[in-house]
Amino acid sequence: ERNGMIGNIYSMGLVLQALEATRKFYAPRQWDCAQAFSRVYAHDYQQPMAIAQVLPALVGRSYLDAAGLDCAATKSMSPGRQLPLPPVQGTHGVPRAPIQVHYCITNTLQGKHFDNCTLVEVPSGSTLLRVMEEAAKEDPQTFCFQTEQTSWGPYVTSIHGLAGSTEDRTFWQFLSAGNALEEGVGTYKPQDGEHIEAVFSKY
Fold it and tell me: Scanning 3, 14, 111, 196, which has its CA 20 to 30 A from the CA of 182?
């Protein structure tokens, strides 16, 4: 579905592991995973949890293989056979050009409804979290927000004093041009002129 995407980019690691581990149950037709792998290869994973779930699939294994690992063989691996570390690339102190992002927060579900927008300027390559921080700095009463740290990165718990609730099945959903973002606020990097909307939603 959607050129190999199953769920979203963060569920792909576990999906690929599960499909590889249960491949024999799909006989006589084997699952064609080339498109799914191409989606994973094309994505720049940055969060440790996402990387940990994708790596086993990339080497043709799953978490189920952990029980059969030969730790003694791993310890005896010579340094010459280990993979080299990628070179570290610096930014050479060159300032990044600024971009402008249209950022809106909308609530039509609970309490007093609101629909507030602002234009935020941040350096190119900034995350959505940085955009939110700048908006809150310019107008803290309107764009204040709270996050909690998870293994998947920062999770937005409230905006403008309105918090999501598992009891009410509400949460803050982030959209770009009407489409739900597949990355979290700590990793998603808006483009110049992009319209980002945080909508208080139900699941």
Answer: 111
173 is in an annotated binding site: no
Same domain, 110 and 18: no
Same domain for 191 and 145: yes
Q: Is 181 annotated as a binding residue?
A: yes
What count of residues does the chain have? 203
Please check if 8 is assigned to a binding site: yes
Tell me: do 37 and 112 sit in the same domain. Answer: no
- Give 33-89 pLDDT, tens digit per residue: 777 777 777 877 777 777 787 877 777 777 766 666 666 654 544 444 444 444 444
User: What domain range includes position 172?
Assistant: 98-202
Shared domain for 51 and 107, answered yes or no, is: no
- Note the pTM of the prediction, 2 decimals: 0.62
The confidence band for 15, taking pLDDT boundaries of 50, 70 and 90, is confident
Question: Are 18 and 104 in a shared domain?
Answer: no
C-alpha closest to that of 145 among 196, 74, 97: 196
Would you say 156 is a known binding-site residue?
yes
Same domain, 41 and 103: no
> What's the total number of domains in the chain?
2
Contacts of 43 (CB under 8 A, 6+ apart): 9
Whole-number Å distance between alpha carbons of 189 and 131: 9
107-139: pLDDT as tens digits: 999 999 999 999 999 999 999 999 999 999 999
